[in-house]
Amino acid sequence: MDNPRCDKTEAWAALRGHYEAHGRDLDLRDAFARDPGRFAAFGVDAPEIYADLSKNLVDTATVHFLLDLARECQVEKHRDAMFAGAPINHTEGRAVLHTALRAPKGQGLHSDEVHDVLDAMLTYVETVRDTAASGIRHVVNIGIGGSDLGPQMVVPALDAFTHPGLTFHFVANVDGHDITPVLRGLKPSETLFIIASKTFTTQETMANAMAARAWFTANGGTDTNKHFVATTTNVKAAAEFGISTTFGFWDWVGGRYSLWSAIGLPIALAVGADNFRALLAGAHAMDRHFATAPLAKNLPVLLGLVDVWYRNFHGFTSRSVAPYHQGLRRLPAYLQQLEMESNGKRVDLDGVSLPFGTSPVVWGEPGTNGQHAYFQMLHQGTDVIPVEFILVKRPTHALADLHTKLLANGLAQSQALMQGKTTAQALTEKAPTASKDLDAQTIAKHRTFPGNRPSTTLLLEQLTPRSLGALIALYEHRVFTSGALWGINSFDQWGVELGKALCNDLLPRLASGDTAGLDASTAGLLTKLRA
Ligand code: F6P
Fold first, then answer.
1. CB 156 within 8 A of CB 327
2. By alpha-carbon position, which residue is closest to atom 9 of ligand 1?
3. What Cα–Cα distance (Å) separates residue 213 from each residue in 141, 197, 234, 265, 502?
4. pLDDT tier at 3 (50, 70, 90 boundaries)?
5. Structure confidence at residue 448 (pLDDT)
6. Residues lining ligand 1, Cβ inside 6 A
7. Model confidence pTM above 0.90
8. Given 204, 341, 365, 388, which residue is catalytic?
9. Are strands 245-248 and 191-196 parallel, antiparallel or unpaired?
10. What pLDDT, in 10s, does the model give residues 267-306?
11. For this structure, is 461 an active site residue?
Protein backbone atom coordinates (compact mmCIF):
# COMPACT_ATOMS: atom_id res chain seq x y z
CA MET A 1 0.00 0.00 0.00
CA ASP A 2 1.47 3.36 -1.07
CA ASN A 3 -0.26 5.88 1.15
CA PRO A 4 0.02 5.59 4.92
CA ARG A 5 -3.32 4.63 6.46
CA CYS A 6 -4.74 7.31 8.77
CA ASP A 7 -4.32 5.34 11.99
CA LYS A 8 -0.62 4.72 11.27
CA THR A 9 0.28 8.41 11.21
CA GLU A 10 1.66 10.77 13.82
CA ALA A 11 -1.23 13.13 13.14
CA TRP A 12 -3.68 10.40 14.18
CA ALA A 13 -1.98 10.09 17.55
CA ALA A 14 -1.93 13.87 17.88
CA LEU A 15 -5.63 14.00 17.05
CA ARG A 16 -6.33 11.33 19.67
CA GLY A 17 -4.51 13.41 22.30
CA HIS A 18 -6.25 16.59 21.14
CA TYR A 19 -9.63 14.86 21.26
CA GLU A 20 -9.08 13.64 24.80
CA ALA A 21 -7.73 16.99 26.00
CA HIS A 22 -10.04 19.44 24.24
CA GLY A 23 -11.98 17.97 21.33
CA ARG A 24 -14.51 15.87 23.21
CA ASP A 25 -15.61 18.79 25.37
CA LEU A 26 -15.54 21.58 22.83
CA ASP A 27 -18.64 23.71 23.29
CA LEU A 28 -19.74 25.66 20.24
CA ARG A 29 -21.44 28.32 22.31
CA ASP A 30 -18.22 29.03 24.20
CA ALA A 31 -16.19 28.86 21.01
CA PHE A 32 -18.34 31.57 19.39
CA ALA A 33 -18.27 33.67 22.56
CA ARG A 34 -14.48 33.43 22.75
CA ASP A 35 -13.80 34.14 19.10
CA PRO A 36 -15.81 36.84 17.31
CA GLY A 37 -13.97 35.90 14.11
CA ARG A 38 -15.09 32.27 14.19
CA PHE A 39 -17.64 32.55 11.39
CA ALA A 40 -15.11 34.14 9.03
CA ALA A 41 -12.32 31.78 10.09
CA PHE A 42 -14.36 28.66 9.37
CA GLY A 43 -15.98 29.87 6.15
CA VAL A 44 -14.78 28.44 2.85
CA ASP A 45 -15.43 29.79 -0.63
CA ALA A 46 -15.49 27.17 -3.35
CA PRO A 47 -16.88 27.44 -6.87
CA GLU A 48 -20.63 28.19 -6.67
CA ILE A 49 -20.72 27.28 -2.96
CA TYR A 50 -20.00 29.05 0.29
CA ALA A 51 -19.57 26.65 3.20
CA ASP A 52 -20.03 27.63 6.82
CA LEU A 53 -18.08 25.12 8.89
CA SER A 54 -18.13 27.27 12.03
CA LYS A 55 -20.90 25.27 13.70
CA ASN A 56 -18.77 22.13 13.66
CA LEU A 57 -17.04 20.69 16.72
CA VAL A 58 -13.63 21.87 15.62
CA ASP A 59 -11.22 24.59 16.63
CA THR A 60 -8.08 25.88 14.97
CA ALA A 61 -5.99 23.13 16.55
CA THR A 62 -8.38 20.42 15.31
CA VAL A 63 -8.13 21.71 11.77
CA HIS A 64 -4.36 22.01 12.11
CA PHE A 65 -4.03 18.33 13.12
CA LEU A 66 -6.55 17.22 10.49
CA LEU A 67 -4.56 18.99 7.78
CA ASP A 68 -1.45 17.23 9.06
CA LEU A 69 -3.38 14.00 8.69
CA ALA A 70 -4.24 14.81 5.08
CA ARG A 71 -0.61 15.56 4.38
CA GLU A 72 0.70 12.43 6.08
CA CYS A 73 -1.84 10.27 4.28
CA GLN A 74 -0.75 11.90 1.02
CA VAL A 75 -4.26 12.79 -0.03
CA GLU A 76 -2.90 15.17 -2.67
CA LYS A 77 -0.72 12.46 -4.21
CA HIS A 78 -3.66 10.07 -4.30
CA ARG A 79 -5.88 12.78 -5.79
CA ASP A 80 -3.29 13.54 -8.48
CA ALA A 81 -3.08 9.83 -9.27
CA MET A 82 -6.84 9.78 -9.83
CA PHE A 83 -6.73 12.79 -12.16
CA ALA A 84 -3.76 11.25 -14.00
CA GLY A 85 -5.67 8.04 -14.75
CA ALA A 86 -3.72 5.68 -12.48
CA PRO A 87 -5.62 2.44 -11.75
CA ILE A 88 -6.58 3.51 -8.22
CA ASN A 89 -9.56 1.14 -8.33
CA HIS A 90 -6.95 -1.54 -7.80
CA THR A 91 -9.26 -4.51 -7.16
CA GLU A 92 -10.73 -4.08 -10.62
CA GLY A 93 -7.54 -2.72 -12.20
CA ARG A 94 -9.36 0.39 -13.37
CA ALA A 95 -8.71 4.09 -13.57
CA VAL A 96 -11.23 6.43 -11.95
CA LEU A 97 -11.82 9.20 -14.43
CA HIS A 98 -15.27 10.67 -14.05
CA THR A 99 -13.43 14.01 -13.90
CA ALA A 100 -12.41 13.50 -17.54
CA LEU A 101 -16.09 13.51 -18.51
CA ARG A 102 -16.44 17.15 -17.53
CA ALA A 103 -13.09 18.50 -18.70
CA PRO A 104 -13.35 20.94 -21.60
CA LYS A 105 -12.40 19.58 -24.99
CA GLY A 106 -8.68 18.97 -25.26
CA GLN A 107 -8.04 19.28 -21.54
CA GLY A 108 -8.78 15.90 -19.97
CA LEU A 109 -7.69 12.36 -20.58
CA HIS A 110 -9.62 10.50 -23.31
CA SER A 111 -10.85 13.90 -24.50
CA ASP A 112 -11.58 12.87 -28.07
CA GLU A 113 -13.70 9.85 -27.10
CA VAL A 114 -15.49 11.78 -24.38
CA HIS A 115 -16.37 14.72 -26.56
CA ASP A 116 -17.32 12.60 -29.57
CA VAL A 117 -19.97 10.81 -27.49
CA LEU A 118 -21.03 14.02 -25.74
CA ASP A 119 -21.45 15.89 -29.02
CA ALA A 120 -23.36 13.01 -30.60
CA MET A 121 -25.59 12.65 -27.56
CA LEU A 122 -26.35 16.35 -27.38
CA THR A 123 -27.15 16.49 -31.09
CA TYR A 124 -29.53 13.57 -30.62
CA VAL A 125 -31.04 15.29 -27.56
CA GLU A 126 -32.06 18.33 -29.57
CA THR A 127 -33.86 16.14 -32.13
CA VAL A 128 -35.96 14.57 -29.37
CA ARG A 129 -36.57 17.93 -27.68
CA ASP A 130 -38.07 19.16 -30.94
CA THR A 131 -41.26 17.55 -29.74
CA ALA A 132 -43.36 18.76 -32.65
CA ALA A 133 -41.15 16.76 -34.99
CA SER A 134 -40.21 13.86 -32.70
CA GLY A 135 -43.67 13.33 -31.22
CA ILE A 136 -42.01 12.31 -27.93
CA ARG A 137 -43.82 13.48 -24.79
CA HIS A 138 -42.61 10.97 -22.19
CA VAL A 139 -39.13 9.72 -21.40
CA VAL A 140 -38.83 6.54 -19.32
CA ASN A 141 -35.37 5.86 -17.91
CA ILE A 142 -34.94 2.19 -17.01
CA GLY A 143 -31.86 1.68 -14.85
CA ILE A 144 -30.87 1.11 -11.25
CA GLY A 145 -28.22 2.34 -8.81
CA GLY A 146 -25.83 4.65 -10.56
CA SER A 147 -27.81 4.28 -13.76
CA ASP A 148 -30.85 5.74 -12.05
CA LEU A 149 -30.09 7.81 -8.95
CA GLY A 150 -28.06 10.57 -10.62
CA PRO A 151 -30.57 11.44 -13.35
CA GLN A 152 -33.46 10.83 -10.96
CA MET A 153 -31.93 13.37 -8.56
CA VAL A 154 -30.86 15.97 -11.13
CA VAL A 155 -33.97 16.11 -13.34
CA PRO A 156 -36.33 17.41 -10.61
CA ALA A 157 -33.56 19.60 -9.18
CA LEU A 158 -33.41 21.42 -12.51
CA ASP A 159 -37.16 21.57 -12.96
CA ALA A 160 -37.02 25.30 -13.75
CA PHE A 161 -34.78 24.52 -16.73
CA THR A 162 -36.74 21.54 -18.02
CA HIS A 163 -38.49 21.20 -21.36
CA PRO A 164 -42.16 21.89 -20.65
CA GLY A 165 -43.39 19.36 -23.19
CA LEU A 166 -41.53 16.37 -21.79
CA THR A 167 -42.40 14.31 -18.73
CA PHE A 168 -39.74 12.13 -17.12
CA HIS A 169 -40.27 8.78 -15.43
CA PHE A 170 -37.73 6.59 -13.66
CA VAL A 171 -38.11 2.85 -13.32
CA ALA A 172 -35.53 1.00 -11.25
CA ASN A 173 -36.99 -1.77 -9.15
CA VAL A 174 -37.58 -5.31 -10.33
CA ASP A 175 -40.93 -4.92 -8.63
CA GLY A 176 -43.73 -4.68 -11.16
CA HIS A 177 -45.28 -2.06 -8.91
CA ASP A 178 -42.61 0.30 -10.22
CA ILE A 179 -43.10 0.04 -13.99
CA THR A 180 -46.84 -0.73 -14.03
CA PRO A 181 -48.11 2.70 -12.95
CA VAL A 182 -45.56 4.38 -15.22
CA LEU A 183 -46.74 2.53 -18.32
CA ARG A 184 -50.38 3.12 -17.47
CA GLY A 185 -51.54 6.04 -19.58
CA LEU A 186 -48.48 6.15 -21.88
CA LYS A 187 -48.68 5.75 -25.66
CA PRO A 188 -45.88 3.95 -27.51
CA SER A 189 -45.82 6.65 -30.21
CA GLU A 190 -45.11 9.36 -27.61
CA THR A 191 -42.65 7.42 -25.43
CA LEU A 192 -38.89 7.15 -25.48
CA PHE A 193 -37.37 4.37 -23.35
CA ILE A 194 -33.77 4.74 -22.24
CA ILE A 195 -32.23 1.45 -21.14
CA ALA A 196 -29.43 2.63 -18.88
CA SER A 197 -26.94 0.08 -17.64
CA LYS A 198 -23.18 0.24 -17.48
CA THR A 199 -22.91 -3.54 -17.79
CA PHE A 200 -26.19 -4.23 -19.62
CA THR A 201 -26.50 -7.37 -17.52
CA THR A 202 -28.19 -6.07 -14.37
CA GLN A 203 -31.14 -8.31 -13.54
CA GLU A 204 -33.56 -5.55 -12.61
CA THR A 205 -32.83 -3.41 -15.64
CA MET A 206 -32.96 -6.27 -18.12
CA ALA A 207 -36.26 -7.51 -16.69
CA ASN A 208 -37.82 -4.04 -16.88
CA ALA A 209 -36.41 -3.46 -20.37
CA MET A 210 -38.08 -6.66 -21.54
CA ALA A 211 -41.34 -5.67 -19.87
CA ALA A 212 -41.17 -2.27 -21.59
CA ARG A 213 -40.49 -3.83 -24.98
CA ALA A 214 -43.35 -6.29 -24.54
CA TRP A 215 -45.69 -3.42 -23.57
CA PHE A 216 -44.49 -1.39 -26.55
CA THR A 217 -45.28 -4.05 -29.13
CA ALA A 218 -48.47 -5.21 -27.40
CA ASN A 219 -49.76 -1.64 -27.60
CA GLY A 220 -49.07 -1.19 -31.30
CA GLY A 221 -45.58 0.27 -31.11
CA THR A 222 -43.63 -0.41 -34.26
CA ASP A 223 -40.50 1.69 -34.54
CA THR A 224 -38.26 0.20 -31.84
CA ASN A 225 -35.24 1.99 -33.30
CA LYS A 226 -36.82 5.33 -32.59
CA HIS A 227 -38.37 4.56 -29.22
CA PHE A 228 -35.58 2.62 -27.49
CA VAL A 229 -32.10 3.95 -26.83
CA ALA A 230 -29.35 2.44 -24.69
CA THR A 231 -26.64 4.06 -22.56
CA THR A 232 -23.98 1.51 -21.70
CA THR A 233 -20.36 0.40 -21.86
CA ASN A 234 -21.63 -2.86 -23.35
CA VAL A 235 -22.77 -1.73 -26.78
CA LYS A 236 -22.67 -5.33 -28.04
CA ALA A 237 -25.23 -6.51 -25.48
CA ALA A 238 -27.47 -3.55 -26.27
CA ALA A 239 -27.33 -4.48 -29.96
CA GLU A 240 -28.19 -8.09 -29.11
CA PHE A 241 -31.17 -6.79 -27.16
CA GLY A 242 -32.26 -5.07 -30.39
CA ILE A 243 -31.32 -1.47 -29.68
CA SER A 244 -29.52 0.33 -32.45
CA THR A 245 -29.24 3.83 -30.97
CA THR A 246 -26.59 3.61 -28.28
CA PHE A 247 -24.44 6.10 -26.44
CA GLY A 248 -21.40 4.50 -24.87
CA PHE A 249 -19.09 5.13 -21.99
CA TRP A 250 -16.10 3.40 -20.47
CA ASP A 251 -15.06 1.10 -17.65
CA TRP A 252 -13.15 3.97 -16.02
CA VAL A 253 -16.48 5.57 -15.14
CA GLY A 254 -17.89 4.06 -11.95
CA GLY A 255 -21.66 3.54 -11.89
CA ARG A 256 -22.21 5.99 -9.03
CA TYR A 257 -20.01 8.56 -10.79
CA SER A 258 -21.66 8.20 -14.18
CA LEU A 259 -24.29 10.91 -14.45
CA TRP A 260 -21.73 13.00 -16.38
CA SER A 261 -21.52 10.32 -19.08
CA ALA A 262 -24.18 8.98 -21.44
CA ILE A 263 -26.03 7.92 -18.29
CA GLY A 264 -26.90 11.64 -18.07
CA LEU A 265 -29.03 11.34 -21.21
CA PRO A 266 -32.33 11.95 -19.33
CA ILE A 267 -30.79 15.07 -17.80
CA ALA A 268 -29.69 16.34 -21.19
CA LEU A 269 -33.13 15.60 -22.63
CA ALA A 270 -34.72 17.52 -19.78
CA VAL A 271 -32.54 20.62 -19.75
CA GLY A 272 -31.01 20.68 -23.24
CA ALA A 273 -27.47 20.73 -24.54
CA ASP A 274 -26.37 24.11 -23.18
CA ASN A 275 -27.59 23.40 -19.68
CA PHE A 276 -26.04 19.93 -19.69
CA ARG A 277 -22.74 21.53 -20.65
CA ALA A 278 -23.22 24.01 -17.80
CA LEU A 279 -23.72 21.11 -15.37
CA LEU A 280 -20.42 19.63 -16.59
CA ALA A 281 -18.72 23.03 -16.35
CA GLY A 282 -19.83 23.45 -12.73
CA ALA A 283 -18.42 20.06 -11.85
CA HIS A 284 -15.20 20.88 -13.69
CA ALA A 285 -14.84 24.11 -11.70
CA MET A 286 -15.08 22.05 -8.50
CA ASP A 287 -12.54 19.56 -9.96
CA ARG A 288 -10.09 22.42 -10.45
CA HIS A 289 -10.73 23.66 -6.93
CA PHE A 290 -10.11 20.16 -5.53
CA ALA A 291 -6.99 19.74 -7.68
CA THR A 292 -5.41 23.10 -6.93
CA ALA A 293 -6.71 24.82 -3.78
CA PRO A 294 -4.39 24.60 -0.77
CA LEU A 295 -5.57 21.95 1.66
CA ALA A 296 -6.61 24.55 4.26
CA LYS A 297 -8.99 26.18 1.75
CA ASN A 298 -9.98 23.06 -0.13
CA LEU A 299 -13.64 22.45 0.60
CA PRO A 300 -13.92 18.76 -0.34
CA VAL A 301 -10.77 18.05 1.65
CA LEU A 302 -12.03 19.93 4.71
CA LEU A 303 -15.42 18.20 4.60
CA GLY A 304 -13.76 14.79 4.25
CA LEU A 305 -11.48 15.57 7.19
CA VAL A 306 -14.38 16.64 9.40
CA ASP A 307 -16.19 13.44 8.40
CA VAL A 308 -13.22 11.42 9.66
CA TRP A 309 -13.01 13.51 12.85
CA TYR A 310 -16.66 12.81 13.59
CA ARG A 311 -16.63 9.15 12.62
CA ASN A 312 -13.37 8.08 14.24
CA PHE A 313 -12.92 10.41 17.20
CA HIS A 314 -16.41 11.51 18.21
CA GLY A 315 -17.79 8.12 17.14
CA PHE A 316 -20.79 9.57 15.28
CA THR A 317 -22.26 6.88 13.08
CA SER A 318 -24.51 8.86 10.79
CA ARG A 319 -24.89 12.18 9.04
CA SER A 320 -28.16 13.77 8.07
CA VAL A 321 -28.52 15.86 4.92
CA ALA A 322 -31.23 18.49 4.83
CA PRO A 323 -31.54 20.25 1.49
CA TYR A 324 -33.80 23.26 1.89
CA HIS A 325 -34.86 22.97 -1.74
CA GLN A 326 -37.65 20.65 -2.77
CA GLY A 327 -35.91 20.03 -6.09
CA LEU A 328 -33.14 18.28 -4.16
CA ARG A 329 -35.53 15.77 -2.62
CA ARG A 330 -33.63 12.83 -4.09
CA LEU A 331 -30.21 14.13 -3.05
CA PRO A 332 -30.07 12.05 0.16
CA ALA A 333 -30.83 8.86 -1.81
CA TYR A 334 -28.20 9.79 -4.37
CA LEU A 335 -25.66 10.45 -1.61
CA GLN A 336 -26.45 7.12 0.03
CA GLN A 337 -25.09 5.31 -3.00
CA LEU A 338 -22.25 7.77 -3.52
CA GLU A 339 -20.99 7.60 0.05
CA MET A 340 -22.07 4.23 1.36
CA GLU A 341 -21.29 2.16 -1.74
CA SER A 342 -17.95 4.00 -2.05
CA ASN A 343 -16.80 3.99 1.56
CA GLY A 344 -18.79 1.18 3.15
CA LYS A 345 -15.64 -0.96 3.29
CA ARG A 346 -14.06 -2.99 6.08
CA VAL A 347 -10.59 -3.75 4.74
CA ASP A 348 -7.77 -1.50 3.59
CA LEU A 349 -6.13 -1.58 0.17
CA ASP A 350 -4.06 -4.60 1.24
CA GLY A 351 -7.14 -6.46 2.45
CA VAL A 352 -6.29 -5.96 6.10
CA SER A 353 -9.29 -5.58 8.45
CA LEU A 354 -9.70 -2.02 9.61
CA PRO A 355 -9.61 -1.25 13.32
CA PHE A 356 -11.83 1.83 12.89
CA GLY A 357 -15.20 2.75 11.39
CA THR A 358 -15.64 3.91 7.81
CA SER A 359 -18.71 5.26 5.99
CA PRO A 360 -21.35 6.82 8.20
CA VAL A 361 -24.99 6.19 7.41
CA VAL A 362 -26.13 9.09 5.24
CA TRP A 363 -29.78 9.95 5.29
CA GLY A 364 -32.20 12.83 5.16
CA GLU A 365 -35.19 14.59 3.67
CA PRO A 366 -35.73 18.06 2.31
CA GLY A 367 -36.43 20.83 4.76
CA THR A 368 -38.80 21.78 6.11
CA ASN A 369 -40.49 18.35 5.80
CA GLY A 370 -37.86 16.63 7.93
CA GLN A 371 -38.47 19.12 10.73
CA HIS A 372 -41.93 17.66 11.17
CA ALA A 373 -40.67 14.10 11.18
CA TYR A 374 -37.27 13.21 12.66
CA PHE A 375 -35.75 16.53 13.71
CA GLN A 376 -37.11 15.79 17.19
CA MET A 377 -34.40 13.13 17.46
CA LEU A 378 -31.72 15.45 16.10
CA HIS A 379 -32.52 17.98 18.81
CA GLN A 380 -33.31 15.80 21.82
CA GLY A 381 -32.35 12.22 20.96
CA THR A 382 -29.52 10.40 22.72
CA ASP A 383 -27.27 10.34 19.65
CA VAL A 384 -25.44 13.29 18.17
CA ILE A 385 -25.98 13.39 14.41
CA PRO A 386 -24.15 16.06 12.44
CA VAL A 387 -26.51 17.76 10.01
CA GLU A 388 -25.74 19.28 6.65
CA PHE A 389 -28.00 22.14 5.62
CA ILE A 390 -28.14 23.19 2.00
CA LEU A 391 -29.62 26.65 1.58
CA VAL A 392 -30.27 28.32 -1.77
CA LYS A 393 -30.39 32.10 -1.68
CA ARG A 394 -32.58 32.81 -4.72
CA PRO A 395 -35.43 30.56 -5.80
CA THR A 396 -36.46 29.96 -9.40
CA HIS A 397 -40.12 30.58 -8.52
CA ALA A 398 -41.86 33.86 -7.82
CA LEU A 399 -43.24 33.06 -4.37
CA ALA A 400 -40.81 35.21 -2.40
CA ASP A 401 -42.75 34.95 0.84
CA LEU A 402 -42.51 31.16 0.87
CA HIS A 403 -38.83 31.28 0.14
CA THR A 404 -38.11 33.64 3.03
CA LYS A 405 -39.96 31.29 5.35
CA LEU A 406 -37.97 28.35 4.00
CA LEU A 407 -34.63 30.08 4.61
CA ALA A 408 -35.66 31.23 8.09
CA ASN A 409 -36.53 27.64 8.93
CA GLY A 410 -33.17 26.33 7.74
CA LEU A 411 -31.24 28.94 9.69
CA ALA A 412 -33.37 28.38 12.78
CA GLN A 413 -32.68 24.67 12.80
CA SER A 414 -28.91 25.02 12.70
CA GLN A 415 -29.18 27.72 15.37
CA ALA A 416 -31.39 25.56 17.59
CA LEU A 417 -29.11 22.53 17.24
CA MET A 418 -26.18 24.60 18.42
CA GLN A 419 -27.81 26.83 21.03
CA GLY A 420 -30.08 24.33 22.68
CA LYS A 421 -32.14 25.41 25.66
CA THR A 422 -31.24 24.99 29.32
CA THR A 423 -33.68 23.71 31.92
CA ALA A 424 -33.43 27.12 33.63
CA GLN A 425 -34.48 28.81 30.39
CA ALA A 426 -37.31 26.34 29.90
CA LEU A 427 -38.52 27.08 33.42
CA THR A 428 -38.94 30.75 32.58
CA GLU A 429 -41.08 30.03 29.53
CA LYS A 430 -44.77 29.41 29.33
CA ALA A 431 -45.79 25.99 28.08
CA PRO A 432 -49.51 26.32 27.42
CA THR A 433 -49.90 22.79 26.05
CA ALA A 434 -48.05 21.12 28.95
CA SER A 435 -50.01 18.93 31.36
CA LYS A 436 -51.19 20.67 34.53
CA ASP A 437 -50.68 17.37 36.40
CA LEU A 438 -46.87 17.58 36.27
CA ASP A 439 -44.64 19.93 38.22
CA ALA A 440 -42.84 22.73 36.38
CA GLN A 441 -39.37 21.20 36.88
CA THR A 442 -40.33 17.92 35.20
CA ILE A 443 -41.94 19.73 32.28
CA ALA A 444 -38.87 21.94 31.93
CA LYS A 445 -36.63 18.86 31.73
CA HIS A 446 -38.70 17.54 28.84
CA ARG A 447 -38.36 20.94 27.20
CA THR A 448 -34.59 21.12 27.60
CA PHE A 449 -32.34 20.90 24.53
CA PRO A 450 -28.70 19.95 25.11
CA GLY A 451 -27.50 22.00 22.13
CA ASN A 452 -23.87 21.89 20.96
CA ARG A 453 -25.05 19.71 18.08
CA PRO A 454 -22.93 20.28 15.01
CA SER A 455 -23.97 21.30 11.53
CA THR A 456 -22.49 22.50 8.27
CA THR A 457 -24.33 24.91 6.01
CA LEU A 458 -23.69 24.94 2.29
CA LEU A 459 -24.94 28.10 0.64
CA LEU A 460 -25.73 28.34 -3.07
CA GLU A 461 -26.71 31.54 -4.84
CA GLN A 462 -29.26 29.70 -6.98
CA LEU A 463 -29.81 26.10 -7.99
CA THR A 464 -28.68 26.15 -11.61
CA PRO A 465 -27.10 23.47 -13.79
CA ARG A 466 -23.71 24.97 -13.01
CA SER A 467 -24.12 25.18 -9.24
CA LEU A 468 -25.67 21.72 -9.08
CA GLY A 469 -22.72 20.32 -11.03
CA ALA A 470 -20.36 21.92 -8.52
CA LEU A 471 -22.36 20.60 -5.57
CA ILE A 472 -22.34 17.00 -6.81
CA ALA A 473 -18.62 17.12 -7.60
CA LEU A 474 -18.02 18.53 -4.12
CA TYR A 475 -19.63 15.43 -2.62
CA GLU A 476 -17.69 13.11 -4.93
CA HIS A 477 -14.37 14.61 -3.87
CA ARG A 478 -15.30 14.68 -0.22
CA VAL A 479 -16.01 10.93 -0.40
CA PHE A 480 -12.68 10.51 -2.19
CA THR A 481 -10.91 12.36 0.62
CA SER A 482 -12.34 10.35 3.49
CA GLY A 483 -11.77 7.13 1.53
CA ALA A 484 -8.14 8.11 0.92
CA LEU A 485 -7.62 8.85 4.62
CA TRP A 486 -9.16 5.55 5.61
CA GLY A 487 -6.92 3.80 3.08
CA ILE A 488 -9.78 1.97 1.38
CA ASN A 489 -10.80 1.44 -2.23
CA SER A 490 -13.72 3.84 -2.69
CA PHE A 491 -14.36 2.65 -6.22
CA ASP A 492 -15.29 -1.02 -6.05
CA GLN A 493 -18.48 -2.58 -4.65
CA TRP A 494 -17.88 -6.27 -3.99
CA GLY A 495 -20.47 -6.13 -1.24
CA VAL A 496 -23.30 -6.23 -3.74
CA GLU A 497 -22.18 -9.53 -5.29
CA LEU A 498 -23.16 -12.12 -2.70
CA GLY A 499 -26.85 -11.23 -2.70
CA LYS A 500 -26.89 -11.30 -6.51
CA ALA A 501 -25.39 -14.82 -6.56
CA LEU A 502 -27.75 -16.15 -3.90
CA CYS A 503 -30.70 -14.63 -5.75
CA ASN A 504 -29.68 -16.55 -8.86
CA ASP A 505 -29.64 -19.74 -6.80
CA LEU A 506 -33.04 -19.03 -5.24
CA LEU A 507 -34.83 -18.05 -8.45
CA PRO A 508 -35.25 -21.61 -9.77
CA ARG A 509 -35.95 -22.88 -6.25
CA LEU A 510 -38.93 -20.50 -5.99
CA ALA A 511 -40.30 -22.21 -9.09
CA SER A 512 -39.45 -25.78 -8.11
CA GLY A 513 -39.80 -25.64 -4.34
CA ASP A 514 -36.40 -27.29 -3.90
CA THR A 515 -35.06 -26.33 -0.47
CA ALA A 516 -32.19 -28.81 -0.28
CA GLY A 517 -29.14 -27.35 1.44
CA LEU A 518 -30.87 -24.12 2.50
CA ASP A 519 -30.83 -22.84 6.06
CA ALA A 520 -34.07 -23.48 7.96
CA SER A 521 -35.24 -19.87 7.85
CA THR A 522 -34.75 -19.40 4.11
CA ALA A 523 -36.26 -22.84 3.41
CA GLY A 524 -39.28 -22.10 5.63
CA LEU A 525 -39.92 -18.70 4.10
CA LEU A 526 -39.53 -20.06 0.58
CA THR A 527 -42.06 -22.78 1.31
CA LYS A 528 -44.53 -20.27 2.76
CA LEU A 529 -44.11 -18.00 -0.28
CA ARG A 530 -45.03 -20.91 -2.56
CA ALA A 531 -47.97 -22.17 -0.52
O1 F6P B 1 -25.36 -3.54 -7.70
C2 F6P B 1 -24.62 -2.39 -7.60
C3 F6P B 1 -24.32 -1.79 -8.94
O4 F6P B 1 -23.29 -2.48 -9.55
C5 F6P B 1 -24.00 -0.31 -8.82
O6 F6P B 1 -22.69 -0.06 -8.50
C7 F6P B 1 -24.42 0.19 -10.15
O8 F6P B 1 -24.56 1.57 -10.16
C9 F6P B 1 -25.70 -0.56 -10.34
O10 F6P B 1 -25.45 -1.83 -9.79
C11 F6P B 1 -26.21 -0.66 -11.74
O12 F6P B 1 -25.32 -1.31 -12.59
P13 F6P B 1 -25.47 -1.22 -14.15
O14 F6P B 1 -25.38 0.22 -14.53
O15 F6P B 1 -24.37 -2.04 -14.71
O16 F6P B 1 -26.82 -1.77 -14.53
1. yes
2. 145
3. 13, 16, 19, 19, 28
4. confident
5. 98
6. 144-147, 197-199, 202, 205, 255-256, 341, 493, 496
7. yes
8. 341
9. unpaired
10. 999 999 999 999 999 999 999 999 999 999 999 999 999 9
11. no
